[in-house]
Design brief:
Elements: H1 10-15, E1 22-24, E2 30-33, H2 35-41, H3 53-56, H4 61-77, E3 81-82, E4 86-87, E5 90-91, E6 98-99, E7 102-111, E8 117-126, H5 128-157, E9 161-165, E10 171-174, H6 176-182, H7 186-189, H8 200-216, E11 220-227, E12 233-244, E13 250-259, H9 261-280, H10 282-304, E14 307-313, E15 318-322, H11 324-329, H12 340-343, H13 352-362, E16 366-376, E17 384-398, E18 401-411, H14 413-425
Antiparallel strand pairs: 1-2, 1-8, 3-7, 4-7, 5-6, 7-8, 9-10, 9-13, 11-12, 12-13, 14-15, 14-18, 16-17, 17-18
Amino acid sequence: MATPSLPVDYQFLFRSLPGLFLLLAPDGTVLDNSDLHVASALVPRSQTLGRNIFEAYPSDPESERQLFESQEKVRQTHQPDTMPMLRYDLERPDGSGPEERYWQLTHHPILDAEGQLRFILQTPEDVTEQVRANRQTAAARQALVEEQERSRFIIDNLPVFIWTADAAGQRDYFNPRWLAFTGRSMAQEVGEQWMTSLHPDDQGRVRAHWQHCVATGEPYQIEYRLRRADAQYRWILVRAAPRRNAQGQITLWVGGATDIHDQKQLVQELLETNEQQAILSEQAYQNYHLAQQQRHTLYSLLMQAPAYISIVRGTEHRYEFANEQFMNLVGKVQVVGHTVAEVFPEIEAQGLLAILDQVYQSGESYSGHEMLVRIDQGDGSGQLRDAYFNFTYQRFDEAGQAAGITAYSYEVTELVKARGALSQLH
């Protein structure tokens, strides 16, 4: 005996399908839609059935044009057509206004037994979350690019020689200040070629020390003579530190160098003068020993003198960056986010803020040589001390507009005092 077939409520089945479906007549009249389509569109079925799709679901003229062209293509070709992504905002259920939504729509032809178009089935896919995710990815990528460009700008414009090397110790980058000093191109410096610019008497010592640090991972510090573009050799002080990954392996070396030639010459002058005085008399001999002690003290101070590097932004001169040496100068207090006037209230009356304003407004760099500045002693007493600095202020621009100032300085107080002592010996 044949099993009797059960009647199927196809309309109930269609409306219960787990997806967004909109059934149209060939002329675009709305015939039916799934329950999920009703819930997504937030328009009651009673307000859409029997109406043209553009009346039932009004949209902007451009969107309606694209919808019409897609449906017309189905009518002409009897082939499915997927539209470009379409924006169609929906009113929020709480009545707080429209919500930005994006859709990928496909129109499917449904033909009768004679191959004539009987229905057009529209299947919208909500791709809003995908669009938002793509936006977030693009924004994060753009932020990364901007941060990389900003870091590169800082490295390229700091008045310090900067270089990097790979884990094997091969130099792979020199900033523009190094290249301008040596008068050589990047291609002429990478690898081990940079050593050709060293004084011949220093090359063996520098190579051995660098290889030792690469092998052991110890911090690198050394002094040597580097040939300038005008063929003059200048003493520089070089420091470098390794960067390690999570496993403790060295992946990169970052180094910086400062010109200490003038300091070395002054120390040599002190030595020569004291030696001459020792030959003249016993008093000179005693003075020589005293000068020797002073020389060692001064030499230590000179070789350990930090370079203070900072960046301030805007007309308020608010600190955006300060290196470790600079932090030591101010007693390791937090300076980033504060203005120069807040960190050094004592310098406003000394004219330094006026110099910063002038550099920011004019764009002309300013260099101070052995400039006297009265600064806080840093011992909590609130007393000021006399200090002498060599410094450079240089404005940097962004998008063609003044953005801030880079400052590079080092303290020469002991040098100034030593020069006074030298003049008394003469």
